Amino acid sequence: MALGRWFRRNPREAAARALYLRVVQQARDPAFYAACGVPDSVDGRFEMVALHAFLVLHRLKRDRARTAELAQALFDTMFLDMDQSLRELGAGDLGVAPRVKAMAKGLYGRIAAYEAGLAGPDDDLRAALARNVFGTVEAADPAGAVAIAAYMRSAAEALQRQPVESLLAGEVGFAPAPESDSEIA
Length: 185
Hints:
Blueprint: H1 4-7, H2 11-27, H3 30-34, H4 42-62, H5 64-88, H6 93-119, H7 122-132, H8 142-160, H9 164-168
């Protein structure tokens, strides 16, 4: 009986894993890459994971007293996955830690930029997206940033309507991704 508690899963960690899997699933939606022009590259995919992690963390922030542990567990889960992914891509042990640290620092910067962008005018959010999501694209179509800015606002609003109990249980729903060029015109 006493051994059972050693092998029990932490419910916050399980919820964080479920949230992170949903973040990654949404970030991989082909519409972001085909309709919005997000680069289908390691950088582009990181940007979309970071964007969706931000959206969930932004929602969790509203109920910080109840969600602080979950938010930290989500962050930890995300960067454990990033560490493993870099290793799978062939990064050596000595190179992984500095790269993960740089990614974490980058996420903090994106969180600040996206928080300010959501609180401000569309131009601020579009500029943050142009710098981050489309920063590696030489001649990015500005319509992509317009579409993703509209998506982010819609997703943030949808997340605000989700009950904290659902999030604490690892359940999250996102707004639909932009699906066609007509949505980004």
